[in-house]
Design brief:
The chain is of the alpha+beta class. It has 3 domains: 162 residues, no CATH class; 110 residues, Rossmann fold (3-Layer(aba) Sandwich), CATH 3.40.50; 152 residues, no CATH class. The protein is 24% helix and 28% strand. The protein has a 6-stranded mixed sheet, covered by helices on one side. Helix 5 packs across helix 6. The N terminus is likely disordered.
Length: 475
């Protein structure tokens, strides 16, 4: 059997010599990074040439996504995001390439005229450039780049680029930091949640506003039809679309049928249990025929009745089992009522480790100090915070007095989903002391500690579709 170096142990060595930035790092541009050289000299020129000159791609909208096998992923790591940013920069400089506007966050502007609306996303991408990073059997990494024809639902033959080799320290750390790819929000891979009808309405209203801007239509007096649906969230969504459209001077939204010359209606289609495609269609009053090019759609996920809140059934979508860690940060709270029972250090503030996760059933946090050994932030470290204040946030009182200035620990956060994976991790960690108790850490000889870390690493590898982890050295 080939010997594979443990990524946890390899990362630990790196983190003991350097702090881990919370924000994903853009990997270094120097001769030490063969990946960066490949991106600069081969990948970016190849992609730009293909989409700028090839008749099949020229003028077609394209976006860059993270792949896992054949599946587009709703989350993205820092290394893939860095490659994507460089490819997008190169494409934007290439004549004939259409790159849709992809906001990472919802825009806060409240425009009053249609000609002020930011457009570009109203056309779905015709092609996805997929970037996949995998680990090889020889402990190296492989980057594969392919193109997906969205309309044909097929990979484009002849479009393929590959690199394999070792990653630098910055690249390895960036690969471990993963968060939701908000630029995909509203697509099937990352639908709006039941608690986001306002964001879904703003998304659809923006798309519809862009379509209205392209039409030579005057005196828009729109009556919004009531949506016939058993889901209150979907009915609210359509009402909010009308409110969003009424901001524009060129659009009048009315409740009086006689004053309206156009009707805005919504259609919902349940594609899978809890997964809805929502269409918004504009058509002249007294006509069932909608205006050409005047419809837009998005995806919304509403858990079926009786489903546990905040969790999605694995049987519905294999991707839901993959959790994501959006943030891990040590913060200090002074006179904060949310953490009033966490500690009593009023001079320096209360040190609290906050971990923000998505789609995780359970989170495990491990502290590894050179002298103190291995301990976990668990029961005695829990800091109770209202769930509605920060959904998906786990907070732990951090026992800084346990560690000396020369022995600040490396902290690992491991997010797990699925009943069986969660049970396996609980079993492995059941004998690890609580860092907030008076018990010393798991401080056996070096060989035993390495053996325990190897067991942890194998468990993560065996549950790669249900586990994600990140690490940083504190403070």
């Amino acid at each position: 059997m080939l010997a594979v170096r443990s990524p946890l142990i390899a990362l630990l060595v790196l983190l003991l010599t350097a702090g881990c930035s919370q924000q994903p790092l853009r990997f270094e541009h120097n001769s030490e990074s063969s990946l960066q050289t490949w991106v600069d000299n081969e990948l970016a020129p190849y992609v730009s040439q293909q989409f700028g000159q090839h008749p099949r791609f020229k003028g077609e909208p394209v976006i860059v996504v993270r792949l896992d096998g054949d599946d587009i992923q709703p989350d993205i790591d820092g290394l893939t995001r860095s490659i994507r940013d460089q490819l997008m920069d190169s494409l934007l400089k290439t004549p004939g390439v259409h790159v849709p506007w992809q906001p990472q966050q919802q825009q806060a502007q409240h425009h009053r005229r249609l000609d002020q609306v930011q457009c570009g996303r109203n056309r779905d991408a015709s092609y996805f450039i997929g970037v996949e990073i995998t680990r090889t059997a020889t402990a190296q990494f492989r980057v594969s780049v392919r193109a997906l024809d969205v309309r044909a639902s097929a990979w484009v033959s002849g479009f393929s680029q590959h690199w394999s080799g070792s990653l630098t320290g910055n690249e390895l750390r960036a690969l471990q930091v993963r968060r939701t790819d908000e630029s995909l929000r509203g697509l099937r891979v990352l639908p709006f949640s039941a608690g986001q009808p306002d964001l879904a309405a703003a998304y659809l209203a923006n798309n519809l506003s862009c379509l209205l801007r392209q039409q030579d239509v005057e005196d828009l007096n729109i009556k919004v039809d009531k949506l016939v649906s058993g889901q209150q969230q979907l009915r609210t969504l359509l009402q909010l679309i009308g409110n969003n459209l009424s901001r524009y001077r060129e659009v009048q939204v009315t409740d009086a049928v006689r004053q309206a010359n156009f009707v805005l209606r919504g259609e919902t289609h349940e594609i899978q249990p809890g997964l809805y495609q929502v269409w918004v269609i504009l058509h002249p009053k007294d006509s069932g025929t909608h205006l050409g090019g005047m419809d837009t759609a998005t995806w919304v996920r509403i858990p079926p009745a009786g489903s546990p809140p905040g969790k999605r059934s694995v049987a519905l979508d294999s991707r839901v089992a993959q959790p994501a860690i959006a943030r891990m940060e040590l913060v200090r709270h002074t006179n904060n009522s949310v953490y009033h029972d966490s500690c009593s250090n009023g001079q320096r503030g209360c040190p609290v480790l906050e971990v923000d996760v998505e789609q995780a059933g359970q989170v495990f946090v491990i502290a590894h100090g050179t002298r103190d050994g291995i301990s976990q932030l668990a029961a005695a470290c829990d800091a109770t915070i209202p769930a509605q204040a920060h959904p998906g946030r786990y907070a732990y009182r951090f026992p800084e007095a346990r560690f000396t200035a020369s022995d600040w620990p490396t902290v690992y956060a491991i997010a797990v989903s699925g009943v069986e994976p969660e049970r396996q991790f609980r079993q492995l960690l059941q004998d690890v002391p609580d860092a907030c108790s008076n018990t010393s850490g798991l401080n056996a000889d070096a060989a035993s500690r390495k053996q325990w870390l190897n067991r942890l690493d194998r468990l993560i590898a065996a549950n790669r579709d249900h586990v994600v982890w990140t690490a940083r050295r504190l403070p």
